[in-house]
Amino acid sequence: MLDSPTAKMAPVTEQPSQTELYLSIENLWKAFGDFIALKNIALDLNEREFVCFLGPSGCGKTTLLRAIAGLDLPTKGTVMQEGKDVTNLPPSERDFGIVFQSYALFPNLTIEKNIAFGLENTGRSKSEIAVRVAELLQLVGLPEQGQKYPAQLSGGQQQRIALARAIATNPGLLLLDEPLSALDAKVRVHLRHEIKELQRKLGVTTVMVTHDQEEALAMADRVVVMNHGVIEQIGTPTEIYRQPANLFVADFIGEMNQIPAVAGASETVVIGGQELKSQAHKFNAGETVVAAIRPEDIIPHGDGARSPGAPDVVKTPENAFDVEIAEMEFLGSFWRCRLRHEIFGEAELITDLSINAVRRLGLTEGVSFKIELPQDRLMAFEPAGAE
């Protein structure tokens, strides 16, 4: 079963070559009985790189992390770390530190003893261990908490201690298994910044599993988007967001309008009988496609649409037409508007407009105004489920 050809996979972005290769995964498969959790995974990580495995629940991202750690040995394939084959080595013989979602601190040990736990079998003296623990507490910003117990700390503080314990032995690889998902939103945002700064300071190659798109985009040097045990796309956060490889990636990362369409020429799509200019695509004319554009890429037109002092736009807008606002939703820093037009049929187009743009244009529900779907932001994808 594992030797069967894999399903057609989306193109992946070529990896950067800024540093030396640290971790290489080739032809990795993992089966649990008849269920294939990982299918022909190929991935290279560079030294000092921060990589996020991103995807929905059950996509295989945690299984891949556990295969790297040796917690779940792969059914087939190889894992090379610094040129050494570690595929079948037990976790104790691999060079990594790991942080779990649940912190996994020993409740009966003080914070100092929790951090020192992994250092006690390294041959260091008690005084050396004490110095190292003090350094780590200072590094994670909790120098006064050493004599407390885990239950006396907040969730964010406990996760910092778990991080300090993971890096205590100076591992070459740091593995983070959804380390922020158990924290509240504000603490999560603050701690993700601290983890990224700490990773840069230490220069440790880091892999983090997450299902939070914002988290991955904010923290990673590269993002590995996974679904159903395969890698859909690898790229920088900007590449993943602005140049999605397929409809799954486009839909999973951020908001995306999806409009039933038909391919036209190489740079056009037809929506509701109206031909619109789009990014170049490889579909044959007449093929069913999904036209996609992000809400923030839709440009409003009309008196007051431009910021005061902005230069006049001399170019006649393309892909422009009048729409009616069906619904407006205030989301703090912007308005999310649902737009109607006959070419969309029963569907509605979503656009995100700044508070100032809404005010200058005098937009309210029921009002009509002109929008533009920029050619360079209108994409065409194969419909979901198409062979």
Automatic annotation (TrEMBL):
Keywords: ATP-binding, Cell inner membrane, Cell membrane, Hydrolase, Membrane, Nucleotide-binding, Translocase, Transport
One Gene Ontology molecular-function label: ATP hydrolysis activity
Domain ABC transporter stretches: 23-253
InterPro entries reported for this sequence: AAA+_ATPase, ABC_SmlMolc_Importer, ABC_transporter-like_ATP-bd, ABC_transporter-like_CS, AminoethylPonate_ABC_PhnT2, Mo/tungstate-bd_C_term_dom, P-loop_NTPase
Keyword field contains Cell membrane: yes
Organism for this UniProt entry: Roseovarius albus
A GO BP annotation: quaternary ammonium group transport
Highest taxon of the lineage: Bacteria
Protein name: Sulfate/thiosulfate import ATP-binding protein CysA
UniProt xrefs under NCBIfam families: PhnT2 (TIGR03265)
EC number(s) on file: 3.6.3.25
PROSITE patterns, per the entry: ABC_TRANSPORTER_1, ABC_TRANSPORTER_2
Enzyme class: hydrolase
